[in-house]
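Hi all, posting the design record for the shared folder.

TITLE: backbone redesign
STEP: 1 of 1
STRUCTURE INPUT:
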């Protein structure tokens, strides 16, 4: 199996390093200083109980790598339109793409079965360009519960958790799903496949739409946001709106908000990925996560006043920092 990580940043680097340690045919697509370090020194992975270096092919030219069996797509949601085109030399007739973005994924309404079957969210995939380039039929969804940082170019550190929930969009337990899950499990990652992948998306969205934006607006790690009663109450109010939108789509939340808060406390010292992006001067994930819930709320007739407010503030924060990628769509427009 040829396994390529497209977007070898914090999460992608961690996955690529773990898989490469026990599996030879791994390659990485990266850029900038990170790529230079990967090519010169290999990929260094630091976990709570281990530290190792793997030497794997790394490039910013996907055509160098040839057709892959599996592409672990860990590029940020806002970069997927460009990434989907750049990936084309890696994709063959049987290539599987593991889509591992935060927020509502571009494939969400593929094999959905509801009234919105085939619908495209414009905040996520304007003009359906991503789905057209990749092909929804080759996608396996992935929801990540794993805190990682790029400590230095070519060096990733896992701070806590290593869960990569996988699922077919149609809910089947396919052979390809089992094979990829087994590969990740062998590499020392947890890759459960028994749950509803869309439910997993929304449980993670609780945090993505509440405490992640709050972290950007306050420049805070997660701990102070969940330990302060006032800030925690704000986060809960946002999470309740997220749940209302999800439930309007027929999603069953298999955890409680209280349980999600407990999980957040366990990584209290973590800086959310969007805060890391702001501090590093990288484009911020705004529309495909928070903006998508605003768009869905309006589509479904669910009021989301607190999410609307946080989205507007976060979008302006990103604009002022020069880190907002305009998509030509405003979900707040009436």
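Okay, here is what came back for every position:
SEQUENCE:
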């Amino acid at each position: 199996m040829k396994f390529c990580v497209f977007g070898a940043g914090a999460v992608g680097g961690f996955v690529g390093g773990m898989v490469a340690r026990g599996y030879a045919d791994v390659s990485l697509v990266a850029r900038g200083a990170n790529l230079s370090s990967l090519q010169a020194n290999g990929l260094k992975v630091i976990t709570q109980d281990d530290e190792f270096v793997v030497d794997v092919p790394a490039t910013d030219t996907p055509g160098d790598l040839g057709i892959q069996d599996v592409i672990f797509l860990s590029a940020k949601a806002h970069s997927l339109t460009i990434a989907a085109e750049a990936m084309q030399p890696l994709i063959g007739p049987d290539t599987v793409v593991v889509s591992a973005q935060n927020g509502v994924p571009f494939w969400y309404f593929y094999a959905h079965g509801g009234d919105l079957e085939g619908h495209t969210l414009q905040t996520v995939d304007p003009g359906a360009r991503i789905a057209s380039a990749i092909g929804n039929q080759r996608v396996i969804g992935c929801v990540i519960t794993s805190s990682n940082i790029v400590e230095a170019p070519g060096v990733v550190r896992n701070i806590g958790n290593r869960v990569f929930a996988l699922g077919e969009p149609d809910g089947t337990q396919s052979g390809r799903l089992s094979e990829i899950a087994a590969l990740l499990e062998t590499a020392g990652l947890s890759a459960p496949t028994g749950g509803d992948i869309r439910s997993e998306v929304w449980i993670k969205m609780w945090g993505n739409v509440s405490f992640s934006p709050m972290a950007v607006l306050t420049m805070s790690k997660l701990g102070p946001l969940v330990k302060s009663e006032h800030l925690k109450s704000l986060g809960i109010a946002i999470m309740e709106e997220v749940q209302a939108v999800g439930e309007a789509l027929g999603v069953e939340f298999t955890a409680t908000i209280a349980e999600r808060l407990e999980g957040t406390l366990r990584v209290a010292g973590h800086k959310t990925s969007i805060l890391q992006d702001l501090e590093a001067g990288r484009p911020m994930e705004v529309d495909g996560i928070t903006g998508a819930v605003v768009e869905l709320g309006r589509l479904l007739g669910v009021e989301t006043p607190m999410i609307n407010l946080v989205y507007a503030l976060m979008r302006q924060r990103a604009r002022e920092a020069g880190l907002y990628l305009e998509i030509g769509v405003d979900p707040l427009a009436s």
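COMMENT: The CA atoms of residues 166 and 193 lie 5 Å apart.
Let me know if anyone wants the other runs.
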